Fold each of these.
Amino acid sequence: MKRPIAYIAGTGYAVPRRAVTNDDLAKNGLDTNDAWIRDRTGIGQRYVSDPDETLTHLSAAASRIAMADAGVSAGEIDVIVLGTATPDHLLPATAVEVQAALGAGRAMAFDLGAACSGWLYSAQVAEGLIATGMAKTVLVIGAEVLSTIVDWTDRNTCVLFGDGAGATIIRSVKTLPKGDTRERGILSSYGRSDGNLYDLLWRPAGGVAEPFSDKVYEERRQYVRMEGREVFKHAVRSMADATDRALDMAKLTPADIDLVIPHQANMRIIEATAKHAGIDMSRFFVNVERFGNTSAASIPIALADARSQGLVPEGTLVLFAAFGAGFTWGSLIVRF
Ligand code: UT7
């Protein structure tokens, strides 16, 4: 097993004030019902931002909690990486607005686009920056305000997603006391992408290739479109690859893993991942019922939620696995 270079020193999350239940969606005229959504996805409600609850606002709120948890001040942060598909502005990156909100004056700040794998890829970038000695303390955020880019008239997609932010402080591993063999930190890290699958889950218009226009608005091409069944198939396949590879790279077996924190997209995808990995569902942390799929925010929200429930005591071995639009996927194994 490789010697860890970086560890997760603090976590936090923030969600909008307003929870929207499945019944609320049906009451507001969408042709859907609580039973269908629960049965196909496991989702019961999601949080939806009001205009003052911007990506910067949610990200900064989650970050302050993670910083307090890690005992890190704003001035100690070397880098801020924000995984998101829903920046507040097209230019500049939202990470710089978060930097300003936190007063993290020394930090280099940038956004990372990897859809639902956004936090996981960002954590891998943090580990790399720490390994080169460029950074000691990195604020890694996954955050989304997906409610602004989903088509609220499309029942195939809008019921799935939610807003929120999760933050983690990733720091370089301190020299351990002699004889301490319980090394904490990132033990293995795996990531892949397949751009041939880019239009299975995408926003066709609003970028440079197809700028906003009357036609775009008429055809609602500024909103997320998804081939649900195809995404499902690729998700199951990539989550299986992600779990296998992370275990191989860390020279661990499924029996070694205390807790799996998967991307919270859908209960059925999580169950298929558990079956493939041979890890009982009782060792999977799932909170998709309360938050829906918050894309890049889902894993760091789940981690902060699990820690607040006392489920990640010191020494816990956690496997994280994510997949998302792109297609992107990857995994991390971390000893807390
Ligand atoms: O981070 C990645 C995010 N994406 C995902 O995780 C999505 C992966 N895909 C899935 O989880 C599933 O494909 C869905 C949950 C999106 C859909 O489930 P499905 O079993 O693949 O359903 P389907 O799309 O084949 O649709 C079955 C039926 C259709 O009706 P007809 O044509 O059979 O009459 C849909 O129109 O269900 C209908 N339907 C709905 N009914 C009630 C689709 N959405 C809804 C809805 N409420 N919200």
Note: The chain has two domains: 6-175, 185-335.
Amino acid sequence: MVTSWEVESLRSQLADAAAGRRFLLQGGDCAERFQDCESPAITRKLKILLQMSLVLVYGSRKPVIRVGRFCGQYAKPRSEAFETREGKVLPAYRGDLINHPEFTDRGRLPDPELLLRGYERAALTLNFIRALVKGGFADLHHPEYWDLDFVQQSPLASEYYAMLHSVVESLQFMENVLGLHPAEMERVDFFTSHEGLHLRYEEAQTRRPPRRERWYNLCTHFPWIGMRTADPDGAHVEYFRGIANPVGVKVGPAMTPEKLVRLIELLDPDGEPGRLTLIHRFGREAVEACLPPLIRAARSTGRAVLWCCDPMHGNTRLTAAGVKTRHFTDILRELELAFDLHAACGSRLGGVHLELTGENVTECLGGARNLNDEDLVRAYESEVDPRLNHEQALEIAMLIARRMRNGPA
Ligand code: PEP
Ligand code: CO
């Protein structure tokens, strides 16, 4: 699905992000669904990531690395092995790569054929994304190609278009006045990522390409190790140790400085720039206590890791009706604290990792339209974690951009 050249190019871009020369935007569904492998849904996913990245370019005044949680984000770790409904107990849904969300004996039975169906859909999705990007869809001269209808009616519209015009004007200045025509302006890159959870799936697509010394996972550019499988002595770390791709590790409240140092030494023995991204996800309540000791521990290893904040997974809660949700305010607050804490520790937040969709779902509370508990029933589609809808996703990007441009409010 991908080549080692692309993987190496991403690694060097991530090295730039670790050094403060780029910013990483990683986002997409918590779990992709096979049924969403169709052009309108894929197009909307690209559109929202493009819009967000443009806003982040404006805010950070840096190139943005766009990484989708797509083309293979099909396997889910679960906290509970079983699910109970009205007294009936069945195995949990573990993503379309493993079984089905339907709450029946048959639906929850793991089916190895799904590994093949997942690979096909991942490849189809990536093929369509490559075609769109190559065909000029992502051309910065034509942001109207990736306008999402909702923006015009949104309370965010005027600020978004102001940011857009500022970027387009700079582009025109560069081209018309300075005579520069960087190819990057017409063809932006998208990279793929997913949690490397199902080791059989990952291993089957791991190769040593011709003229390369090392092994590459060629079913994604950027696999990450989830929080539940980040055991230094576990199988996942052992597999990731053997591949040359840049890798991410989710870092949650259970991570200790000692364990983090071991992980860094195992996964990045040579201190290779861009190799390791630490994606922290503590929740707004815990981030202040958890993050600084880990920043110090990582620094003690002498490695230039890239720090990225996932403000989603530590902020999940249940509504009174038992629906899994996240509040926009908590997500934003964790992000703001992450920027502040890194700055206070002499470190740098180099990216964000978000669960979002290009659709108008109602899964997270708050945001510009202040969605409440009752709104959640309207368009709640995720089978796993609640995602920011297109408007909330753009709003988060705009708030990050404002913050990067102006510093703390
Ligand atoms: C996820 O990213 O969907 C996920 C399960 O995250 P974590 O491993 O951080 O809980
Ligand atoms: Co999730």
Note: The domain at 4-75+112-406 is CATH 3.20.20.70 (TIM Barrel).
